[in-house]
Amino acid sequence: MFQLRLIAATLLLACLLSVLSHTARAYGPLNHACCVKYTQKPLPFKVIKGFIEQSSREVCRIDAIIFFTRLNKKVCASAKDEWVKIILQRLSSKLKTLGVNSASKHMDLKTTNPTEEP
Question: Which segment of the chain is annotated as a signal peptide (predicted)?
Answer without folding.
Answer: 1-26
